[in-house]
Amino acid sequence: MSHAANALNVSPHQIAFQSANGWDIAGAAAFGFTTTWINRAELAEERLPSGPAATIPSLSELPALLGISIEN
Known about the structure:
Blueprint: H1 2-8, E1 16-19, H2 22-31, E2 34-38, E3 54-56, H3 62-65
Parallel strand pairs: 1-2, 2-3
């Protein structure tokens, strides 16, 4: 994960990380990434050491979460 921050020359919190896997979210959040859990199955959040900054039901919600306008 430090490779991504170093390669982009940014702080970890400036990297948006998305996953449908709770353990991926926990690891990325612990490192300092800003995380979003894609909870497609409407599952209860797992009890992990670190949690997501946001939870959305599908990737189609991501642009709005990031403040990006998508024109159809």
